[in-house]
From TrEMBL:
The lineage of its organism: Bacteria, Pseudomonadati, Pseudomonadota, Gammaproteobacteria, Pseudomonadales. It holds the Pfam family LysR_substrate. One of its GO terms (biological process) is DNA-templated transcription. This is Bacterial regulatory, Fis family protein. One of its GO terms (molecular function) is sequence-specific DNA binding. Belongs to the LysR transcriptional regulatory family. Keywords: DNA-binding, Transcription, Transcription regulation. The keyword Protease does not apply. It comes from Pseudomonas fluorescens. Transmembrane segments: none annotated.
Amino acid sequence: MLDLNDIAMFVQVVHCGSFAEAARRLGMPPNTVSRRIQQLETRLGTRLLQRSTRKLTLTSAGQGFHERCVGAVDDLLEAGQDLITGSSEPSGRVRVAAPADFFDFFEMAWVSEFLTAYPRVRLDFVLSDAKADLIAEQIDVAFRGGPLRDSGYVGRQILDPRSVGMVASPDYLAARGSPRTLQDLASHDCVISAHPGGHATWHLIGPKGEEEVQVTGRFSGNTAQSQRKAAVAGLGIALLPPLMAKLEVDAGVLVPVLPQYQPNGYGLNVLYPSRRQLPPAVSAFIGLVIRKMNAADVPQVYQ
């Protein structure tokens, strides 16, 4: 029979990313934790963790076992904590992974409001355009733009793109004219993602459903901010994340181009390691993001 304490210890090791940190939190020697996990692997007849001098990684069997166990363990710990505190008030650290430009559009005042409402919560942000490894980096929740592909994590789309995408400066359109069809883009300079060939494929949703178009340009940049600045400077037509495009259009700096087309796959997704009920603090923060962005009529955050 499996020892439920060993399973809980395994979940803690995965969450901490190391035997040493898990042992510190559990108040026992690291070699004891390592030995108990080895015993669990022996009983299961499979390796759960790949050990190296730098970090621990889950095997495929370990990933599946963790997904099956973590929700139950978290529920038990949460139930015990609720009995101890007498409430289910959100508490503890929430480690959040988000795009590098997240706070260009998500107001810090909203974070302040959240922390005031939940004084027992601490937020720890990891901002990067790279896709976070939720297990290795001990991430509780990740916000990620773009299509939600299978990543081994639990995920769902929480906001759909519903806004402008292609934009250009008034000066550029006055000099070059406005395209009437997707095919007209071939005769325009377009601001694109960095590509050695100076061309890109834009994937769009239009009146006929999903469409794509090949575009070229003399300026390319590997961040949305660089492309936005190039469009504002009149260097061409840009396909910006809807949130970024909307803010510039509302400010009168850029104007929509072919507004019947929108970028395909720019919704906001939320990812988290556990398949079961989220901790109250994590759920509360996800709720804040949804409420504030909807209230501001903001459709998405980009990758």
